[in-house]
Write a structure and sequence with these properties.
Strand content: 5-15%
Strand order of the largest sheet: 4-3-5-6
Distance between the termini: 36 Å
Number of strands: 6
Number of helices: 9
Order of helices and strands: HEHHEHHEHEHEHEH
Largest sheet: 4 strands, parallel
Shape: elongated
Length: 230
């Protein structure tokens, strides 16, 4: 967003009695992005703020909403200005808002995630923020000694959302070396998982983002590690 548009947004928010938050930690009600309608419907808005907006049940809107509200002198209805990714033919922000209103469990409820690899876009910190915003938990190591007792205790609990154990990975420049390291880690973690009667799901971070974009965890399939060498 240009400095001029940002200033215009801040002035509109002040006049219409709203507060502007320009960070990733604050939980807003609306996320405003400077995209055209064509960009917003072709996946051009896939930013960290976009994904966080979905996970938090926000309205995710084009900047046109600010202009229309400023001209009207009140906050106009959001529906005509929604941003969504047409790749899946799904309005994920709308589905997420409805889910939050029903007080459904968050998208990643019951998920324990270990990050493996070099993450740049998004960064590791940004991925951790998204996982936690979706109700998941980031762990440094799946099935560490401190976590094993938690797994054992949860086996006897009435849990409608069983824990999913996920290794979320990315690869750096040396892809063959990274793949070998990843496979070694998977074998090690899976061996422990078998002793606890658990299963580990290996997911590339692209699959993780697609899952958010469709707001459907069932779409988060396992990755083909050999295909990632192509």
């Amino acid at each position: 967003m240009t400095p001029m548009k940002k200033h215009q947004l801040e002035n509109t928010a002040k006049v219409l009695m709203a507060r502007v938050a320009d960070d990733l930690v604050t939980r807003p009600t609306h996320v405003v992005m400077d995209l055209s309608q064509e960009q917003s419907e072709s996946g051009g808005g896939r930013t960290v703020k976009y994904f966080l907006g979905i996970l938090r049940g926000c309205w995710v809107l084009r900047y046109d909403w600010i202009i229309a509200s400023m001209n009207a002198g009140y906050w106009v209805h959001e529906s005509p200005y929604q941003i969504y990714d047409n790749e899946f033919g799904i309005n994920a922000p709308k589905i997420s808002r409805a889910s939050h209103l029903r007080r459904d469990p968050p998208l990643f409820a019951g998920c324990e995630v270990q990050l493996f690899g070099t993450f740049t876009r998004p960064t590791k910190d940004e991925l951790e923020l998204m996982i936690e915003a979706g109700g998941g938990m980031v762990v440094s190591q799946l099935f560490s000694w401190s976590m094993r007792s938690t797994v054992l205790r949860s086996d006897g609990a009435d849990n409608a959302h069983p824990t999913r154990h996920i290794i979320l990975y990315d690869q750096a420049n040396n892809r063959v070396r990274d793949l070998r390291r990843l496979k070694t880690e998977i074998r090690s973690v899976s061996a422990v998982a078998c002793t606890l009667d658990r299963r580990v799901q290996v997911v590339h971070h692209r699959e993780f983002l697609d899952c958010i974009a469709s707001y459907d965890i069932s779409t988060m399939g396992e990755s083909d590690l050999y295909a990632d060498l192509a």
